[in-house]
């Protein structure tokens, strides 16, 4: 707009100069033209001069307007420049946060997530088996070292599609280490390799290797010590060690003699978990390889997360299951467990039981634990537990087995670290007293670190 | 076999009595299966307890693109 006005101003100036030249020429000619209508010519010249004065005033007004426009444009440009500077400063300030939020690797698919997590659980067992005392350096099979990859995608309308791969990397696994094999070597286990689809209204289907319906149903437990060391599977931490007769090994391992009759474990299977009914009722069924089947009902199980159900000041959790483990001489297996935590005090009670309906004497196991979770330190909770288990006929030569333990766990929350210790006693009576087994005392000191 | 079912039957009866007595029951809100990889912070992974390689582009992304829509949804859910 300013450029156009400047053009018009230049044109008017040119017209004015041309008119002035013509006027001066005309005046010269008129002066030489003596006596002919001089007054008329003077009058005509005056009119022309007035006209030119008006044109000059118009040009001056245009010039003033143009200058005003230019000034306004400069002001606007300065304001825009200042605003751009402010925006750039804000972007620069935000840039580090944005960089930290950006994933190193990104997916072409929207609404997906791949998460990696894992843990290392190492322990030292100092064991007296009646013959000698020795130390064993193990990976704790109660919750062994492992790494997990979980990919999930949101399909919308409450449906999630996921994959899970979980691999145990557990050298010197405590269920393998024995007095005659203190260095049992590498242990790799493909714990879970599965695909699952979950819908809030219809439940979850899982296909692949993973938990069967009856997995963990004898192990539901709300106490803190259950995580790394103390639960109904009392022999896990020393499962490979053998009873002795006070002189030599008997060939009966603690893992043989103590078993909680948990269900079908982790198998290649198809599993269906129903949606959660009411505050926490859920049903599950699975069919696994080698003709294994099972059914389970859980209370507060919530797809294996064990969130429990709050009843007043109490948190409750429980499960029962029936399974066909496809084991010789076993018709079916029953097991169940329940745990109650009084949330204000941290006191908990846990019970577990399991049995096989067998052709001869039915083997069974009963377990009870008193737990106490408290918070002595600001960096994490502390847990204590004392338990007792009684079993009969668990192995071929076994008659009656008893075990008692006392354990403590300290959590360092921010570091994902647990420090634990346990003292446990095992006693086994064999059929007809042969072999005559000595009691075993095992002291454990260990640490589980989530990375 | 018959003795085994006493325990779950007693538990079921106890729950039924509790439910009928009007005590409020509600789902717990903490993951407590600690024999799996423990929920919560990790030594290297920090507060989330896991390395996230692919980012979820869910409600956060939608909220960033249209903050007003996000606030409307939040209000509606309350």
Report how far apart the termini of chain A are.
Answer: 68 Å
Task: Provide the CATH superfamily of the largest domain in chain A.
Answer: Porin
Strand order of the largest sheet of chain A: 1-3-4-5-6-9-10-11-13-14-15-16-17-18-19-20
How would the global form of chain B be characterised? elongated
Strand percentage of chain B: 5-15%
Number of strands of chain B: 2
Counting copies of identical and different chains, the oligomeric state is heterodimer
Largest interface: A-B, 70 and 40 residues
Helix content of chain B: 40-55%
- CATH C-level of the largest domain in chain A: Mainly Beta
> How many angstroms does the end-to-end distance of chain B come to?
50 Å
Protein name (chain A): Porin
Organism (chain A): Pelagibius litoralis
Name the features.
heterodimer, A: alpha+beta, two-stranded antiparallel sheet, 3 helices, 20 strands, B: 78 residues, mainly alpha, 2 strands, 42% helix, Porin_dom_sf (chain A)
Give me the secondary-structure topology.
The complex is a heterodimer of chains A (451) and B (78).
Chain A: H1 2-32, H2 38-101, E1 112-128, E2 133-139, E3 146-156, E4 159-169, E5 188-199, E6 203-211, E7 242-244, E8 249-253, H3 254-257, E9 266-273, E10 281-288, E11 292-299, E12 309-311, E13 314-324, E14 330-342, E15 347-358, E16 364-377, E17 380-392, E18 398-412, E19 417-430, E20 440-450
Antiparallel strand pairs in A: 1-2, 1-3, 1-20, 3-4, 4-5, 5-6, 6-9, 7-8, 9-10, 10-11, 11-13, 12-13, 13-14, 14-15, 15-16, 16-17, 17-18, 18-19, 19-20
Chain B: H1 6-20, E1 25-27, E2 51-54, H2 59-65, H3 67-77
Helix pairs in contact in B: 2-3
Give your account of this protein's structure.
The complex is a heterodimer of chains A (451) and B (78). Helix content of chain A is 22%, strand content 45%. By secondary structure, chain A is an alpha+beta fold. Chain A folds into two domains: 86 residues; 331 residues, Porin (Beta Barrel), CATH 2.40.160.10. Chain A has a 16-stranded antiparallel barrel. In chain A, strand 3 and strand 4 form a beta hairpin. The two termini of chain A are 68 Å apart. About 3% of the residues of chain A have low confidence. By secondary structure, chain B is mainly alpha-helical. In chain B, helix 2 crosses helix 3. Chain B starts with 5 loop residues before the first helix and ends with a helix. The chains are: A alpha+beta (451), B mainly alpha (78). At the A-B interface, strand 1, strand 3, strand 12, strand 13 and strand 14 of A face helix 1, strand 1 and strand 2 of B. Strand 1 of chain A pairs antiparallel with strand 2 of chain B.
